[in-house]
Design a protein that fits this description.
Layout: H1 2-6, H2 12-30, H3 34-49, H4 78-89, H5 94-97, H6 121-126, H7 133-168, H8 172-200, H9 208-219, H10 223-248, H11 252-281, H12 285-304, H13 309-315, H14 322-331, H15 333-352, H16 361-366, H17 383-393
The chain binds fe (ii) ion (2 copies).
């Protein structure tokens, strides 16, 4: 608190730098469980302090998992086998399924990318930033491009994580299924990249917090941590985010693209729930506690720290403080709604795999996440059901 007060004596650029350092410190000290800190800490330093995700090409991470071979090819999980069959049948070709010749005008109010209340321009004005109609439309375009760029970077993480998990899991039916997911993720990288590049013309760098999570699960040697990180946390949140955007956007190509992607992602999260539900039952108490804490900390990291500083740096650095921007993004209605939908998807899955124990309930309650506990988990929702529900809600 005192440190925060003292920073007001500094020039703004330095003040923003100190704000960023204090925030990093806060993220790292927020993690209470020492084992979680030990596994997340190095990724936190690489992402938040060294900004590894932003240092050009390539970013290298080292894998530590073991590939699990089985020369007897067992049929060991009928539900995973059924998912594999469904996934094979539902492959789609983005070249023929999506109307890439649609001309997208990010400034067309009839086909707007996001709801107009997504950003609260009144709240920006209260912070001394007055934008005319054209600038507002440009800012919404930036914000959309930022979100889709983060989806794209997340998809690249999902592509590599799915490949690692396919090697590492012990279920043979899971490996076959996993191969379809690798293909799905490649297609997602392809379509998001093409949309961002051809239709929005703007690609943002990876957000540091997203980098931290991807780095942590790529480097963790334990297959179930990769699973938990990617199939449940990142994919679960992404599914919520895709759903919100699907509901909001009036741009037909983006909507169609999301409709296809959501149906693939629903299978991915379903697989995550199947694989982890049984596995977590066999863990020792201390191993399970570590995973409960890890999931909770990562959920908070994603909720509190996904703050579009990349948009701030481009638009407002020098015009408002980083801290004001943080308050603005935290409070703005569109981002609030995003966070809500994201967690309404994630929390039921965490419950289903047994990671919201009695011990954790007060912590979920304290941060306002307990309200999502009774939702349907991914093994009860298929992609079509999810789309139908979103269409009804829209
Ligand atoms: Fe994906
Ligand atoms: Fe996925």
């Amino acid at each position: 608190m005192e440190a925060t007060k003292l920073t007001f004596l500094l020039p703004e650029r330095m003040r923003n730098q100190v704000d960023a350092w204090l925030e990093t410190l806060e993220v790292l000290t927020e993690i209470k469980d020492p084992r979680v800190l030990a596994s997340m800490g190095p990724s936190g330093v690489r992402g938040l302090v060294l900004h590894r995700g932003k240092q050009g090409v390539p970013t290298k991470t080292r894998a530590h998992h073991a590939a699990h071979f089985d020369w007897t090819y067992p049929s060991d999980n009928p539900e995973m086998r059924a998912l594999y069959t469904r996934a094979k049948r539902r492959q789609w070709d983005s070249d023929t399924k999506l109307a890439w010749d649609t001309s997208v005008d990010p400034y067309d109010p009839e086909k707007r990318l996001l709801d107009e209340y997504f950003l609260d321009f009144g709240a920006l004005e209260a912070r001394g930033i007055k934008l005319d109609a054209k600038e507002r439309a440009r800012l919404v375009h930036s914000q959309t491009a930022w979100m889709l760029s983060q989806f794209l970077h997340g998809e690249q993480g999902a592509l590599f994580a799915a490949a690692q998990v396919t090697e590492a899991v012990q279920f043979f039916d899971g490996k076959l299924y996993g191969a379809t997911q690798v293909m799905d993720e490649a297609r997602h990288v392809e379509v998001f990249h093409r949309y961002v590049e051809e239709k929005l013309g703007k690609l943002y760098q990876i957000n540091d917090n997203l980098f931290v999570i991807i780095d942590a699960l790529m480097t963790d040697a334990r297959w179930d941590m990769k699973f938990l990180g990617m199939q449940i946390m990142v994919e679960g949140l992404a599914l919520g985010a895709f759903g919100t955007l699907y509901k909001q956007t009036r741009e037909p190509l983006l909507k169609e693209l999301l409709r296809y992607v959501i149906q693939d992602e629903a299978r991915h999260v379903h697989y995550g729930v199947l694989a982890l539900r049984d596995h977590f039952k066999q863990l020792s108490d201390s191993e399970r506690r570590e995973r409960e804490d890890w999931a909770f900390e990562v959920a908070l990291l994603m909720r509190n720290r996904f703050l579009a500083y990349e948009v701030y740096e481009e638009w407002f650095e020098g015009r408002m403080s980083r801290r004001d921007w943080r308050e603005f993004v935290t409070e703005t209605p569109g981002m609030k709604q995003f966070r809500q939908t994201m967690f309404s998807r994630l929390v039921p899955n965490l419950r289903e795999i047994g990671l919201v124990s009695q011990r954790l309930i007060p912590r979920y309650e304290k941060v306002g996440l307990l309200q999502y506990m009774n939702g349907l988990a991914a093994d009860r929702l298929d992609g079509e059901g999810m789309i139908a529900e979103l269409d009804r809600a829209a």
